[in-house]
Every structure is written in C-alpha cells, then in structure tokens.
Amino acid sequence: MAGPGMELVGEEEIEEVLQVLRSGYLYRYGITTPDGDDPRFQGKVYQLEQEIAAMSQVRYAVAVNSGTSALLTAMAALGIGPGDEVIVPGFTFVASISAIVYTGAVPVLAEIDRTFNLDPADVRDRITPRTKAIMAVHMMGNPARLQELKNIADVNNLYLIEDCCQAFGAAYQGRPIGSIGHVGAFSFNIYKTITSGDGGMVITDDEELYRRAFAFHDQGHSPLRTGVEIGQRPFLGLDFRYTELQAAVLLAQLRKLPGLVDRLQSRKRHFKAALADLPGLEFREVLDAEEEVATILTAILPTAEIARNVAAELKTKVVAEAGWHVYNNMEHLLEQRMPTETACSFNCPHYAEQGDPTLYRKGMLPRTDDLLARSINISIGVSDAGLGSAFGVTINDDLDVVEERAAAFRRIAARHLH
C-alpha cells in the first residue's frame, strides 16, 4: 500500500542519493572553512526548497521532517497557541488535529460538504472570539473552497492555513495550492503524491513568517544559518530538519510530477466514465478536474446499507469505517488523551471550556457522518487502508486494468442499485 510516487522510484532517485553519499555530507548544512564552503557539499535541501517555492509561486519554503512537523511549524510561525481555537474538518488525517493540540490551541471540528473538504457555511457558524485560524485540508487530492474560506478568514481577521499534505501538485483557480493562505504545509510520506519516505515542507510569501518557521524548525536559528547565533535567536525552537538524502530522493521525484499527475487524471477520467451512467451512483464534487491531483475517486451510494454491501463484496470498507481520517474513529481525540495527566489544552485554565467532556463526541457532525457512511474510496494512485482505498488501481496499471476494475465495481454496484 502506497502512493503514486512510491511506485515510480527508480534510477533517477538512486543517482541523486549516490551524489550525496559520494559528497560525504548528509546534513542540510555544509562545512564552512576559511576558504569558503566545501565544494563537495551538494546543498540538496536548499535546492529543493528553492524549486518548491518557485513551483508554488511563493518566495519561501522550509523543508521539515514530516507533514505533521510542517503543520506544527506553520502554526508556530503564525503565533497560534494556548487559548486559541483552530477550525478544522472532522474528516482529515489525525495529524491536522494533533498538530493543533501540540501548539496548545484547541481544534474545533467542522462539517465537510460534497467536496469532502471544509463546508464554508459551517465554518462561519463555528467562529468564536477565541478563533485564530481556519485550517483548510485539501483531502484526497481535491482542493477545498479556498475563495470562500479566504473571504471568511479576511472578514474575521483570521489566519488561513492550507493543509496540502494529500494534494501536492494541485491548483485552485490557476494558482498552486499552499499559495493562497498565509501558509501552506505539505507531506512527502509514502502515501503522498511524491515521496522521500517521509518529510514535509512549509511555504509562505511572507518574509517574517518564513523567518519564524525556520527558527522553529531549527532550534531558533535564523534562515540558512552559517554558525552559532548566540544572542540572536528569537525563541526556542525544535529540530525538524530535513536531510540531504531525503532531499535527493524528492528532487528526482519532483521532476516526475507533471507526468505523474497527467497519468492519474487520465486513469480517473476513464474509471469515472465507466461508472457515470449507473442509476443512483454519484461522485464527490471536484472543483476543477484539471486542477486536482486525481489520487482517489469517491463514489457516493444512496444509502449507508447499500454502500456497506457494495464495499464488502469489493473487500474494502466505506469511508466512515476506514480508519484514522474520520473523527469518530479517533478515540484518543474523543477521550482527550494526552501524555500527561493534565490534558492541556483541553482542560487547562487558559481555555474557557476546560474539562468539557462533550467537546468531542461521536455523531457530532451529522452531515459529515452521512456522507462518509455512504461513500467508497476507489484508489487511482493512493492505496491506503486509512482512507478505505483498498480497491482500485495503481499509477502503473494500464487502461485495460482500469477498465477491468471499473467493470468489477459496476457489476457489483449494479446489483445493489437496481
């Protein structure tokens, strides 16, 4: 089980990694001598940051060691912390939520709409005086309604964070995702569009946010530090640094991105067309099929019972039962479990509703629950049990395999839709 990038690892990635190994420098910084930098140092991390910033049409990028680290770093750059609330969808990978918790802020769960992303109307209703940011998660390769969410953020003086972890390479109204909000965060683990095994990236067009993000990811240091900066560091940071080896792999993967996206979109079009005339079958709303990263095709059935029966025959699950992308399945969130007995931020004095056991509960997002219970995710390039995409195809499957798998879905679904 993996994403499309993992399926395409080959000689290009090997050659990039060998360059790093031969240089002798695996760390993101080279060694500065009286004569300057050692010419053997490859500088792959910096090169990758520059290339992704340019591709994203922003000025700055900071490479980090995971998508979770990217989200946490983005929020640290924005100054989100104790007493704040961040609105986030109830259908997302758990890291979107846990990253908020570990800033000291409180996640406020909101409904999704037919895009399977944040419902702007519900977001508007959940804003309180404590709200500091809206986290738009571009789930399963499909951008959220960014213009509406940005309007809400602007009117209410809130930050807009783009969690782009599942949609690297997607665009929204002609602009790369991650460039529309104040900050964008990407993931490069094995289930994502392209991969370096693990890793992430924070992007922004704001110089001050870039400096804060860099400081947070590298023990408080200024961007691209060249020495010890005693007395100059703005605040305590952590170590979320990316390595030269990871950057080498991702640079090779980045060159494959355009062809990869074209291949995914082609296979999704064929799969969807083969099912489109099934009576009673609907599909997730995609804002622009030419701008999404078509890793998953989501089929929506008329009832939860029909969806469960079809999924069982396909040896997969409905999305509601799939795994840890669904708030109802996050028992550690529902029970507010933390490493310490005092479960901050949930029950700390800085939060007015401290200790409220009803802050999260199963069934609290009925429209989300209904959609997920009636939906089946079909893999086009991401096979992930946590998303319920066990059935489908991979990026390496030819169109005859796509047609064969689509026919199997059609045959089974038709029996339950008659």
Structural overview:
This protein has 418 residues and is an alpha/beta fold. It folds into 2 domains: 4-255, Type I PLP-dependent aspartate aminotransferase-like (Major domain) (Aspartate Aminotransferase, domain 2, 3-Layer(aba) Sandwich); 258-332 and 360-417, Aspartate Aminotransferase, domain 1 (Alpha-Beta Complex), CATH 3.90.1150. The protein is built from 14 helices and 14 strands. The chain has a 7-stranded mixed β-sheet, sandwiched between helices. It has a 3-stranded antiparallel β-sheet with strand order 12-13-14. It has a two-stranded antiparallel ribbon with strand order 1-2. Helix 2 packs antiparallel against helix 9, helix 10 runs parallel beside helix 14 and helix 11 packs across helix 14. The longest helix has 19 residues, at 257-275. It is globular.
